Amino acid sequence: MVIRTEKLGDGVDFLSIRDSRFKTARLKAAIFLPLAEKTAAKYAILPDLLTRCCALYPDMMQFTRHLNRLYGATVAGGVSRHGEHQLLSLSVSCIDNRFCLNFEDVVEEAARLLLSMLFCPHLDEAGLFAADDFEQEKRCLCERIAAEMNEKRVYARRQSDKLLANGSPYGIPVTGTAEAAAALTREAATAAWKEMLKTAKFQFVYMANDDGERVSRLIEDAFAGQKRMVDFGKTDPTFVPLSVPRRKTEQMPLKQAKLVMGFRLKAHEPDEKAVATGRMLTALFGGGPQSLLFRHVREEMSLCYYCHAVFDRHNGVLTVDSGVDPADTARAEAAILHQLDRICRGDFSQDSFDSSRRSLIHHIRDYENLQSSSIGWYVVQSLTPRFLSPAEAIDRLEAVTREDVCRLAQTVTLTSVYTLLPEGGDTE
User: Are 49 and 135 in contact (CB under 8 A)?
Assistant: First the structure.
């Protein structure tokens, strides 16, 4: 595997990963924008609008036929949160040129298609997103937001994030609010697309059996005529410290209560050692079957149906997500905090520590087994000073000691507790 980086313009970067193991080539455009309540829904609709069709192939039938001509190439769009930024993504995957029957340059055609989707979407005579395309994708966005209410675990996590954020961008829904999505207009979405092209940070990641030189030149040429004023904002967390944890309880028609506890800890990007230690702490605390939460809170005490810890290394946040019997929420909270205190005191076995490290290393090595996950590994590092390979990340993990984990655990502060309880006797 050979990795090459290149700056193609103001806020436009290119990363090429040369790997001959795969029979496909993949190009992803990762687009970073500050996460803000007034713009979240406007930007969230763009990936699906842009990957639906384009000016060259203005309806889904023509677009699909062209993908079929490219040996069944596929496109995808998505939106996610990255630290306190909104991450929009467009990607295209196609057969590697080595396997084309007539020596066609399918990879270049696929790259041109992605750039066409990005710069030349399907607009009407007035220069707005076509009405049919917009209305269908707006409906899908509204349905996706509404679906969170039916997935109680996801809903509880979102509410917990908002509680923990205490007014910072971290708590803003990445797809925007239901009200903002319902109020979206074609004018607003089209203006957001133009603003994105001017102000967003673009990270292109390409993975195939070549060095990506031709693809990077296509991207460079596409941006050459663009007037850009990149306004990227801060990359460090902006949380306001809290002296006591914020608490909120809601009721909904369900049987199983949801308890989500949010913690702050002194570990976030770009501190590579601190991030490695944060990963180890999370794995030991609640990262899998070997963890203290699983073995003691879930199995021995039978307090949780599930109890899992997640580390957000971009924001220095540790979240414990659990499903509990409504009568056991207070006991479960106390038991979770007790397991964290055990780590602070070093009260855990070497076997648990070593098992956590092995589990993490196995998980990181898995990233290299698929093109999509390999590209994803590097995309999430787009805002850090340098790219860390999976092998380098494993080296950092190997260097973490028990003492490092204990010291970091002592910095962990409970910041929020969100509880979702059943109302009446209704079922989910």
Answer: no
